[in-house]
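quick q for whoever's on today - can somebody do inverse folding on this one?? i tried earlier but teh output was garbage lol. tokens:
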């Protein structure tokens, strides 16, 4: 390829994101179905791929896990009758333009709607990828003052999680403004950043960025690797730089059909993460988010993978398998299943709330066409 720009400059990577079929053809051989799906999603779901992430795609295989995560698919346009744009009820817990206050001592701060790549399986697909959707109560451009004020007035909040979209889409100076304001609130003990940049655009993790974070410790970063192919020299370098500056890096994967829903792939991913010193934190059961249903696996599948790991590998290689519900995240282990019927599972949340989770039958995965 003939780039006239600096491959290692993250802003240039961002500016040169692939957003047309023609540009994509510089990287891969698109098959007619993929091309058709991209056309059909126009006006409904946005897509964009960083040149770096596109360079990881298999040239010819449409089932490549990188392609499946980044390129619109026809299945996205099929609406599952049980799906919801916000199945875990984040908007029920929204208290300001940007804050979701679901747990008493920690909050989510939705910094932006923008990302470097629009992951097809995003749990906030309505907020990030849906052309007409947003979780913001007002606008993204709205000032953060009411959010800062809310946190200041709630001394129980000791943990603030910056997410989005992807907060690292913002410049270092914009982020520093937010982080320094949070750090000036005495009861905020830890600041967490949820970002997929180490995976999708690792060049974003610069020395300057890490030095900025270091001033506001304790700062933690949770990223999102889903497949061993994503562990590259560049992504390892990004994680290493964060670690060197004292930012612990953890990983949150989503269990995705056709991408990582087999024991061998999952084991390779987890072992790969340990090799780059990234600690597996959560493995999310895929939520039934509108436009994401085709990635859902069964809970049995997740439990089967878990059984293949526990005892068979390093204890801290094993993430906590969780399902997100209206009552918070519930870890799935054989210990908290209260009732196991043909129709679904009843699990107990951390507060002892009984939560019923129906199984999806294969025929229910194919709902009506948009
Ligand atoms: C996941 C999540 C958190 C953080 O939960 P941890 O289990 O502490 O990682 C906080 N608020 C909301 C709304 C969440 O979804
Ligand atoms: S980077 Fe994160 S927030 Fe953005 S689309 Fe991907 S999963 Fe969603």
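ok took a stab at it. sequence:
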């Amino acid at each position: 390829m003939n780039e006239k720009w600096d491959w290692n400059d993250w802003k240039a990577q961002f500016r040169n994101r692939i957003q047309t079929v023609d540009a994509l053809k510089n990287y891969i051989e698109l098959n007619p179905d993929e091309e058709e799906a991209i056309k059909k999603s126009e006006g409904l779901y946005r897509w964009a791929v960083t040149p770096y992430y596109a360079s990881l795609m298999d040239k010819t295989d449409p089932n490549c896990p990188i392609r499946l995560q980044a390129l619109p698919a026809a299945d996205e346009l099929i609406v599952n009758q049980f799906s919801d744009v916000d199945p875990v009820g984040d908007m029920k817990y929204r208290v300001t333009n940007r804050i979701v206050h679901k747990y008493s001592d920690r909050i989510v701060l939705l910094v932006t709607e923008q990302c470097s790549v629009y992951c097809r399986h995003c749990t906030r697909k309505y907020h990030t990828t849906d052309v007409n959707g947003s979780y913001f109560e007002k606008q993204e451009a709205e000032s953060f003052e009411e959010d800062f004020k809310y946190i200041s007035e709630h001394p129980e909040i000791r943990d603030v999680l910056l997410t989005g979209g992807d907060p690292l889409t913002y410049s270092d100076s914009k982020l520093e403004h937010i982080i320094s304001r949070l750090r000036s609130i005495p009861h905020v003990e830890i600041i967490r950043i949820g970002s997929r940049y180490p995976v999708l655009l690792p060049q974003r993790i610069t020395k300057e960025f890490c030095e900025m974070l270091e001033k506001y410790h304790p700062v933690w970063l949770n990223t999102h690797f889903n497949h061993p192919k994503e562990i590259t020299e560049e992504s390892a370098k990004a994680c290493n730089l964060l670690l060197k500056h004292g930012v612990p890096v953890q990983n949150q994967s989503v269990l995705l059909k056709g991408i990582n829903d087999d024991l061998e792939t999952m084991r390779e991913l987890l072992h790969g993460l340990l090799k780059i010193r990234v600690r597996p934190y959560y493995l999310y059961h895929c939520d039934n988010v509108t436009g994401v249903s085709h990635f859902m696996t069964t809970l049995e599948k997740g439990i089967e993978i878990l059984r293949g790991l526990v005892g068979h590998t390093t204890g801290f290689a094993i993430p906590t398998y969780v399902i997100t519900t209206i009552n918070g995240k519930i870890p799935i282990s054989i210990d908290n299943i209260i009732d196991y019927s043909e129709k679904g599972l009843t699990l107990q949340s951390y507060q002892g709330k009984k939560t019923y989770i129906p199984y999806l039958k294969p025929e229910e995965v194919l709902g009506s066409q948009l």
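fwiw The longest helix spans residues 263-275. also The radius of gyration is 20 Å. so keep that in mind when u check it
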